[in-house]
Amino acid sequence: MAILILDEQVISQIAAGEVVERPASVVKELVENALDAGATFVQIEVGAGGQRFIRVSDDGIGIPADEVKIAVMRHATSKLRTADDLSRIETLGFRGEALSSIAAVSRLLITTRHRDETMGMRIRLEGGQVLEASAVGAPAGTVVTVENLFFNMPARKKFLKSENTEKRLINQIVMNYAMAYPHVRFVLVHDGREIFRSPGSGQLADVVVKVFGLSQFKQMVEVDGEEIIRGRGGRIVVRGFVSEPDLNRKDRSRVILFVNGRAVQDNSLAYAVTQAYHTLLPKGRYPHAVLVISVPPDFVDVNVHPTKAEIRFEDANIAFSAVQRAVREVILGYARPAMTPRRE
Ligand code: ADP
Ligand code: MG
């Protein structure tokens, strides 16, 4: 075949496949947009594990009516202006790829009203093409509905995992964000049934109780560490809850870490948590932990991966030891049985 530049439609579909791997990734992107919009309430409704529909409603700032059509275009974002801004990202999104990617591979409906405008806007797309856009009355905030996901990507559709796998992933994503944003009220509904709700009290403890259950929560202790990054300035703050050594499991799935409001998969940090227990954990066992870590925005590079699950620290050792020290401080109390703090 001769070398030709792909047409826009194909380019969008290929790019979309990278961001929107599966229904759960749609949930992630839409929830992130709601949080970036300053929502205090985020409702996630899912039908058939996302294969029927996904709807995320928020009470955030909304999209100005004349910008809605732009929001669904590739590389359209209100969160980034210059390459320089990349070094100090404080929003969850910044690549301007989510809405356009989702639009390219689904039937998408957005109803939104910006807080400062009197009329809202409703836009309907299919396979990235705008079919309808009209002014409507709507409450301030945004409702995004995704149907027919991957209707034009049969290969992707075929490889979708079971409904239950997808539901589990979606639950995890929503619960993670509920823990990272305890002041936001989250409601998660599967097939018309509410399965999770966070109170939005601003207290991480209240959400951890909801996610882990009261009996496990009672076996967790609070972490509250903070240190200055030496020779550089700025602070690393490590807050959250970790389990007493007795509460452990055979895999690391309950070591949940957030860095600057983002759930991250970071082997080094997870290892720092486990290391903090030293010999207190039986071999091959892992603690439960929910740690909310904040670092200066320019201490971390979030632009490593399209889904941003991986991050890179300016100095990984500093992050490692800050986490280890914060956890060890509370775990030390368990080192000698005589000193084990007992709680009712
Ligand atoms: P990004 O989040 O990286 O900017 P998206 O494609 O996810 O890219 O969204 C594009 C733009 O649409 C955002 O920058 C934002 O201005 C707007 N937007 C998307 N979702 C919402 C929402 N729920 N509330 C308000 N604005 C939104
Ligand atoms: Mg986004």
TrEMBL record:
GO BP annotations listed: mismatch repair
Cellular component aspect of the GO annotation: mismatch repair complex
Presence of keyword DNA repair: yes
GO molecular function, one term: ATP binding
UniProt entry keywords in alphabetical sequence: DNA damage, DNA repair, Endonuclease, Hydrolase, Nuclease
DNA mismatch repair protein S5 domain residues: 208-332
Similarity field: Belongs to the DNA mismatch repair MutL/HexB family.
Functional summary from the UniProt entry: This protein is involved in the repair of mismatches in DNA. It is required for dam-dependent methyl-directed DNA mismatch repair. May act as a 'molecular matchmaker', a protein that promotes the formation of a stable complex between two or more DNA-binding proteins in an ATP-dependent manner without itself being part of a final effector complex.
Name of the featured protein: DNA mismatch repair protein MutL
Organism this protein belongs to: Phototrophicus methaneseepsis
Gene: mutL
Residues of the whole record sequence present: 1 to 344 of 586
